[in-house]
Specification:
mainly beta, Immunoglobulin-like, 2 domains
C-alpha cells in the first residue's frame, strides 16, 4: 500500500498525436451544502461575435440528481484573473468571488430524478464588462440557490478573456493536433466528488484502449498526464463512433472484468469521434484536476465511454490498474 502525493502508473492491455494543456480555476472553501447534486452537463462554451461587441455563453444541461424539486436556482458569471504566461491552477475562495457580470440568469425550479434545464444561454456586451480592470480572465459560471446564494456547482469555461486594444477579446488557449490538423478541444469539467457506481460491463473488441497506457496524477499540483507506449484508442467497427469521453475513475475496491465498482470520477476529457476501422494513435493528454476526492484507498481505472442516441455515455473499454493507493 502506498501513500502518495503523486501517482505514476503503467499497464499493458489487450491515428495522429493528441495533446493539450488546460489552465483552470478551482473554488475552495465551498459550503457544507455543496455536494454536486446538480450537474452542469454536456458542452459549455463562451463565444464572441465577429466584431467583438458581444459575447454569449451556451450550456447544454443542468441536471437535478436529487429526489426532490429544487428551490429557485440562478446562474452568476464571474471573471477570474489569470496569468496568460502560466499553465497553472488558480484557487479562489468561493466566498470571495469578485469581477461579477452585473446580471443574474434566473432559472426557476426543476423537478428531481434527473430532470434538467436545457440549452442555457447567457448573453452580454462589452459595455457590461467595462468595469473589469484591464487584464486576462477565465470565465466561470456558478449555479446557486437564488434565495440563500449557496453554490450548488460551477463550470470553468475554455478560452481566456483578454484586454486587447481597448476592448476584450476571447483568446483560444486550448488546441490539439490530430493527424497534423488543429482542432478545438473541450475539456469537460463535469467532474463529480459525489460517490457513484460504474458498470464495467461492455462489448469487448469494438472500441478499445489498446497498447501500453500510463497515468501520472500529481495531487500537489493538481495535474494529470495520460500517455503511453504504442497506445491508441481504436474503433474496430464498421461505423464512425459518436462523441467519446476518457475518464479517470478511482474505485474503492479492486475491479474485476465486467463488474460494477463504486468510487469517484476524478476527471473526464472529451474525445472527438473516430472514423470506422481507424484509431487515435499515441494520445498525450495533459490537464488538471478541478475537484478533490475524499481521502481513502483507491484503485485507478482508465475508462473509454461513448454517447448513445440519448446522449448517455456507456462504457466501451477499461484499463484496471492493480496497485492500491492511499490519499
Amino acid at each position: 500500500m502506498n501513500s502518495f502525493k503523486k501517482i505514476l502508473l503503467t499497464t499493458a492491455i489487450i491515428t495522429g498525436n493528441y495533446t493539450f494543456s488546460q489552465q483552470t480555476v478551482v473554488l475552495t472553501d465551498l459550503p457544507a451544502t455543496y455536494n454536486q447534486s446538480y450537474d452542469l452537463r454536456g458542452v459549455w462554451s463562451i463565444k464572441n461575435n465577429e466584431d467583438n461587441k458581444s459575447f454569449v455563453i451556451n450550456g447544454s444541461q443542468i441536471i437535478n440528481n436529487t429526489n426532490s424539486r429544487s428551490n429557485d436556482l440562478e446562474l452568476t458569471v464571474h471573471f477570474i484573473p489569470v496569468d496568460p504566461e502560466k499553465n497553472s491552477t488558480v484557487r479562489i475562495d468561493a466566498n470571495k468571488l469578485t469581477h461579477k457580470l452585473n446580471k443574474e440568469t434566473v432559472l426557476g425550479q426543476v423537478d428531481g430524478n434527473r430532470n434538467s434545464f436545457n440549452n442555457i444561454r447567457i448573453a452580454f456586451t462589452q459595455l457590461e464588462i467595462s468595469h473589469l480592470p484591464q487584464g486576462s480572465y477565465k470565465t466561470i459560471v456558478v449555479l446557486r440557490d437564488k434565495n440563500t446564494k449557496e453554490i450548488k456547482n460551477y463550470k470553468v469555461l475554455d478560452n481566456r478573456l483578454e484586454y486587447i486594444d481597448d476592448h476584450y477579446e476571447l483568446v483560444k488557449e486550448n488546441s490539439y493536433m490530430i493527424n497534423g490538423e488543429k482542432a478545438d478541444n473541450t475539456l469537460s469539467n463535469v467532474y463529480s466528488t459525489v460517490k457513484s457506481s460504474l458498470s464495467l460491463a461492455y462489448v469487448p473488441n469494438q472500441k478499445v484502449l489498446a497498447g501500453d497506457w500510463k497515468l501520472d496524477v500529481d495531487f500537489s499540483t493538481l495535474s494529470v498526464v495520460i500517455n503511453g507506449n504504442n497506445n491508441s484508442i481504436q474503433n474496430r467497427t464498421l461505423s464512425d463512433t459518436n462523441e467519446l469521453k476518457l475518464l479517470v475513475y478511482f474505485s474503492e475496491n479492486p475491479a474485476n472484468e465486467f463488474t460494477t465498482v463504486e468510487g469517484y470520477e476524478l476527471l473526464n476529457v472529451d474525445i472527438k469521434p473516430i472514423s470506422k476501422i481507424s484509431e487515435l494513435k499515441n494520445p498525450v493528454i495533459k490537464t488538471n484536476i478541478t475537484k478533490a476526492i475524499p481521502s481513502g484507498e483507491y484503485y485507478p481505472i482508465l475508462v473509454l465511454t461513448e454517447a448513445d442516441e440519448n446522449g448517455e455515455y456507456k462504457v466501451k473499454s477499461a484499463i484496471r490498474f492493480t496497485d492500491k493507493y492511499t490519499l
